[in-house]
Amino acid sequence: MRDIYRALAVVAALAVAGAGVLAIAQSGRADEAAARPVAAPPAVPVSSTPSPSPSLPPTPSPGASIAPGYTAMEALAADRRVPKLPGRLKPRALPGKPIRTVGTIKDVKTGVSLPRLHGPWKRYGAAPFTSRQVLPPVAGSPRGMLVSCPVPIEAQKSLRDTARLAARWTLNHHPEGAVIRWLGTQPVKKGWSLVYQVKYGKRSSVAAVVVLDTGEAKPALVFVTVPDTQKKRWADIRRVISGVRVLG
C-alpha cells in the first residue's frame, strides 16, 4: 500500500508541474503577442475627383491700365476709346503759325531736350513730370500743357507700340469719356510720334506723344495737348515734334 501511495504522490506532483509549465508557456505567448507592433490602420484613399479647372480671366475693362490676366497690348486692343492705329497716316496740317522758341529745356532725368516755347507758354512746376510748360487756363477746358518724363507705362519692344500705350495713358489728363481719333503717325529720329484728336462731349483737344530711345532703362515721353478753346496754338504741336532731341 505504501508503494501505491508513493506512486500516486509522484503522479500528482508531475501533474502539478505540468500545469505550471503550461501556464508559463501560455504567459510567454501572451507577452510575445503584446510585444509585437500594432499594424497601422489602412490609409484613407485619396479622392480621385479632379480639381476644378481654373476660370478664364475676365474680359479687359475699357480704360483699365492692364486687366488681370492680360498683357498691356491686349488691354489696349480691348479699350474702345483707342481705335486701331493705321499702318501709314501722314500727319495732318494743323492750323495757325507755330510759336517761336526761346531756347531749349534739357531734361537730364529723362534724357531729352525739348523746345522752350515763347509766351503765352510758361514753365510750371514739373511734378509729377520731369519738365512742364503750360498755357493760361481757360474756364471749362482742360489746360494746355507740354511735359516730359520717362514713359509711365510698360515699354514694348516696338517704340510705335509704346507710343500707342502712351497715347492711351494721356487720356488720364483729359476729361472723362474722352476718345481718340488718329491724325498722324510717323517715325522720328530715335523714336516715334503720334498726333491725335481727343474728343470729350462737344469739345476736343489736339495732342501728340513722342517716344524716344535715350539708352536709359525706359524710353522718354514728350506729351503735348492743346484744347480747342486755344486752337490758335495747335500749330505749336508741330514745333514740339520737330524740336525734340535725345541728349548727347
State the end-to-end distance: 139 Å
Largest sheet: 7 strands, antiparallel
- In terms of DSSP E residues, the strand content is 25-35%
Question: Quick one: how many beta strands?
Answer: 10
Low-confidence parts:
1-65
Structural class: alpha+beta
Order of helical and strand elements = HHEEEEEHEEEEHE
* Overall number of domains: 2
CATH superfamily (homologous) name of the largest domain: Mog1/PsbP, alpha/beta/alpha sandwich
Number of helices: 4
Order of adjacent strands in the largest pleated sheet? 3-4-5-9-8-7-6
CATH class of the largest domain: Alpha Beta
CATH architecture of the largest domain: 3-Layer(aba) Sandwich
- Shape field: globular
Topology:
Elements: H1 2-35, H2 72-78, E1 101-107, E2 112-117, E3 122-123, E4 131-134, E5 145-150, H3 159-169, E6 179-188, E7 191-200, E8 203-212, E9 220-227, H4 236-243, E10 245-246
Task: Provide an overview of this structure.
The chain is of the alpha+beta class. Helices cover 24% and strands 26% of the residues. It has a 7-stranded antiparallel β-sheet with strand order 3-4-5-9-8-7-6. The longest helix has 34 residues, at 2-35.
